[in-house]
Design brief:
Number of helices: 13
Structural class: mainly alpha
Radius of gyration: 20 Å
Order of helices and strands: HHHHHHHHHHHHH
Low-confidence stretches: none
Strand content: under 5%
């Protein structure tokens, strides 16, 4: 509990007001970010520091696609703009996961995962991409929901990179509420936590979830925006990064924490 207690924000007599509230709110952010980095540096089991080191290269590729670094094809820049959205989601998720806002980071990662499956479909089904471009909002919601995109992918020769089970877990923890919802509830003290609290297991798991989705975004954004020659060159640099991502993630964390609790 000591690691949790030192992150708590206390006030003396009454809840802080006005500008004092913001000073109070951000007063331990530097400490939390340092705690997160220390967890990564000391993590020998899942090699989090190796995972962390791939993020700059991956984010650079995503940024390059969104800014036409590899060449501008003109037109409405739909793929590039959506890729830019993915970049913003990625860096936002990274910023808040370092402060212990894991549920919220997973919500952003979920949005990246939706882009990944959509881009995967676009890369193999030009007609589907054009339909998505041409439809109005109501039609897109009906025909290209996350479930519908996975269904369309199931009819191709490729599997969707983001499975139904994984996507459902992102939704369960990061987005949808239910009678058992507890904020930042997946932690070693088994308590709901109001605010950001850095914990070892989730800081590692969510980093892996973020890295996994960003690597896919980089590959699929390239697939939909650059020449085949450029794609093959860039993907040959990116593909090996998958091996640097640890296997603790939002799908496996419950089992891992139960094993830790039972001394396995």
């Amino acid at each position: 509990m000591k690691d949790i207690d030192k992150q708590k924000l206390f006030y003396k007599s009454s809840f802080p007001k006005g500008e004092e509230y913001f000073s109070w709110l951000f007063s331990k952010d530097d400490m939390k970010e340092n705690m997160t980095m220390e967890i990564y540096e000391k993590d020998e089991k899942f090699k989090s520091l190796e995972t962390l080191k791939i993020l700059p290269d991956i984010l650079e590729t995503i940024y390059n696609v969104s800014t036409c670094y590899y060449g501008c094809t003109g037109g409405a820049h739909i793929i590039e703009y959506i890729t830019g959205r993915g970049y913003n989601l990625g860096i936002s998720a990274f910023k808040i996961l370092r402060l212990g806002f894991y549920d919220e980071a997973l919500s952003l990662i979920r949005s990246i995962s939706e882009i990944n499956n959509l881009f995967s479909l676009f890369g193999i089904d030009e007609k589907a991409k054009q339909n998505w471009y041409d439809m109005n909002e109501k039609e897109r919601i009906r025909e290209f929901s996350p479930a519908k995109v996975r269904e369309k992918m199931s009819k191709t020769v490729l599997e969707a990179p983001i499975s139904r089970e994984y996507y459902s877990k992102l939704c369960e923890v990061g987005v949808h509420v239910n009678p058992t919802t507890k904020p930042q509830g997946k932690n070693h003290v088994e308590k709901a936590m109001i605010g950001g609290f850095v914990t070892k297991e989730l800081s590692i798991a969510v980093l892996n979830d973020l890295a996994f989705n960003l690597v896919w975004l980089a590959i699929l954004a390239l697939r939909n925006s650059v020449s085949q020659e450029t794609f093959l060159i860039e993907v040959s640099k990116i593909q090996p990064h998958f091996s640097k991502i640890g296997d603790l993630n939002i799908e496996t964390i419950d089992q891992y924490m139960n094993e830790q609790k039972n001394g396995k």
